[in-house]
Amino acid sequence: MIGIATDESYIEHKAKARVMRNSQTLLPGEAFTADRLLAPRQAMIAYMSALAPVTRAVERVSLDDAFGRILAHDAVANEAHPANDRSTMDGFAVRAGDRGTLRIVGEVRMGHAPENGIAEGEAMRIPTGGTVPPGADAVVPFEDVDTVVVAGESSETIVLRDFVAVGENVTRAGSDMRAGETALRAGRRIGGPELGVLATLGIVPVPVYRRPRIGIISTGDELVDPGETLATGQIRDSNRFAIAGSLRAMGAEPVQLPRALDSADAVKSAIAMAVATCDAAILTGGSSVGARDVTPDAIEQLAGGTVHVHGLRVKPGKPTVLAAVGTTPIVGLPGNPTSALLILEAVVAPLIASLAGATARRVGREVVAAREFAGRAGWTWFVPAALVDEGERTRVVPLVLRSAQVSLLARAAGYVVLGEERPHIAVGERVVLHPFASGGAL
Length: 442
Known about the structure:
By secondary structure, the protein is of the alpha/beta class. It is built from seven helices and 28 strands. The chain has a six-stranded mixed beta sheet, with no helix packed on it. Strands 16-13-17-21-20-18 form a six-stranded mixed beta sheet, with helices on both faces. The relative contact order is 0.13.
């Protein structure tokens, strides 16, 4: 099966979710009856448990091209870093037990090994980052010594003003990474800090998972391209671009497929194209139970097509479809822009992460509610929220949920989850604000 990060609540619901998944066939008049719907977590466990294992291809890319990719192999240090003791200050390498006046016997040059070591009563000039010479175990900064030039001699001496402790102003060999240590685990998204580690370890080219190709299909007779002038009843096809942005941020490669009209044959043809060319497909629109909502039927009419979940106990996004054609995952999102993007971000993200090979979850930010968040007992609500500055404090406020609005999530810093057992959050309570994969309004 496709892997999914789980916690105790996931596991507790797993058996129940599998049973309920098999009872999703809706009879006339039973469309989306609440007691027949799965909570989002239950639904994703049932769905991903039913999917085939993922075989991820690995490719090797340059460091410049590795940013944002998912590391495919553990990054292991083959040697200690730093390889030698190094100075953290411009100053003099000394022996910690020495006192008083010391004779300068040389200078450490950056990028070179010391030409000699030091003995008792001796010191050596050293720059920040320079290799500590043999015999030295501490560094004293220039400003902490008195320098005396001995007349008629080429040597200099320094006078220590204070006691110097062992290891003072020295970075020990192997203190950053030890030989054999795993510095980065496979499945980690590569950002700036990770690029620094990979370059330091000499891991070039970088092994990364191939980005999963996710086909995007918009459905609807009313949709037109963004550059077209609108006629009455038409809307510009914005969902596909919003979804593509989030997919890129999640580590996938979005593939824009032709739009499908509201007919089973058109949707079937579009899905078949996605199955032939992509690792998964995401459709928007046509997932509810109206006369034009043909996505579930179209999936099941295809060879190997199975609808595992149709409908979630969630707001927004109740008519979500979780399906597969053969081994290819197919997700049907609602047509309303806010619903589509929130379900992708809050519910479907583990599927995309699994396809991409990513193991880490996005971490939410704990903030204080400046206004009440109100949901519905027994349901999961995803509430778009904005941050507001109140003097020295930053708090979070809910935004009025309008699923059909395109601009709503662009004004949000993220979303707050109101769970089945905690449908209300009072003013002053702490709550977790979940960020969008591609960022959010600040």
